[in-house]
Amino acid sequence: MSKAIRMSRTGGPEVMEYLEVEVGPPAAGEVQIRQEAIGVNFIDVYFRTGLYPQPLPGGLGLEGAGVVVAVGEGVTTLKVGDRVAYAGHPIGAYAQLRNLPAALLLALPEKIGFDTAAAMMLQGLTVHYLMHRTVQLKAGDTVLFHAAAGGVGLIACQWARVLGVTLIGTVGSEEKAALAIENGAAHVINYNREPVAERVRELTDGRGVSVVYDSVGKDTFLASLDCLAPLGMLVSFGNSSGPVPPFSLLELAARGSLFVTRPTLWHYVAERAALEAAARALFGVVGSGEVKIAINQRYNLADAAQAHRDLESRQTSGSSILLPHA
Ligand code: NDP
């Protein structure tokens, strides 16, 4: 048996129920893990509200870290006692115990703790593909990164510093501005108080930036296009303020033959080799201390609804985790 968050309908945080569920033995190709920490991500909100559909009744959560406690038939890569972490489908990470395909799991280096791993896998693998694969950033590039004090954001600020990239971050408060700067942002713009595109032009001598990373979506989309230099790339990777409404491709021509992409982590780590390479890079920068994972909110698994309330109301900074055995 395992305690887990389940939901039978979409809606507000109140649809999340903390229940006892039965977990059978792992099937062929699966392992069972006792989770020590679970990551909370904005994507969990999209699944809870129904913006992203999933079959119901179901669970929530896509990221965790723990210890292998049982191994299904045919699994040769992992054994009982191994420390592992993961980010990815199937949904259902908000649980004490779960069975997962061995192919999703990564062996966790000794020096990375469970809390850090659960907080960083999804957000860190995301920053890796955004900066190394969607666009291959190089030293000297200048980019705009929205929500720079969030979970993905603080990792992005630090990783940009490692790469020698000038990151202009947007944030919603003065406290978050200080946090983004401390973590490596070269400049910050409070998008609740300052006109973003105008400030970006000032900071770049009128040129604009070559890449905008936009996870806010609806509220920032057009301003993001206005921040780009000709031939620049808008990487629209989230919808925290709502999905981007339909727009005319002529908007891209008018602003300088711009590019737009709407990527998702899962496509970038679908091949095991790509997942391992990205994880190696992430474990490398975190293991060396170049990127520190700021776990600024911790909750008991039973209080997952509160974690969602805090995240959606923009109360949080850095990463949030759930502790399943507290
Ligand atoms: P964050 O910790 O960044 O939390 C979201 C932040 O967005 C808030 O703290 C807030 O910061 C900002 N925000 C702006 N407008 C709103 C709004 N209307 N409602 C709520 N928040 C708002 O979350 P994560 O680090 O988990 O994720 C960041 C984004 O990246 C999400 O949109 C997520 O879906 C996306 N993502 C996409 C992936 C992909 O592969 N496509 C993978 C991983 C994450 P502030 O107060 O400073 O405005």
Automatic annotation (TrEMBL):
EC number per UniProt: 1.6.5.5
Keyword field: NADP, Oxidoreductase
One Gene Ontology cellular component: cytosol
Pfam families per UniProt: ADH_N, ADH_zinc_N
The keyword NADP belongs to this UniProt entry's keyword annotation: yes
Enzyme type, top EC level: oxidoreductase
Ranges of residues in domain Enoyl reductase (ER): 11-322
UniProt keyword tRNA-binding, yes or no: no
Gene Ontology molecular function, alphabetical: mRNA 3'-UTR AU-rich region binding; NADPH binding; quinone reductase (NADPH) activity; zinc ion binding
CDD domains assigned to the protein according to its UniProt record, in alphabetical order: QOR2
Highest taxon above the source species: Bacteria
Protein name (Swiss-Prot/TrEMBL): NADPH2:quinone reductase
Originating organism: Pseudoduganella violacea
Taxonomic lineage from the root: Bacteria, Pseudomonadati, Pseudomonadota, Betaproteobacteria, Burkholderiales
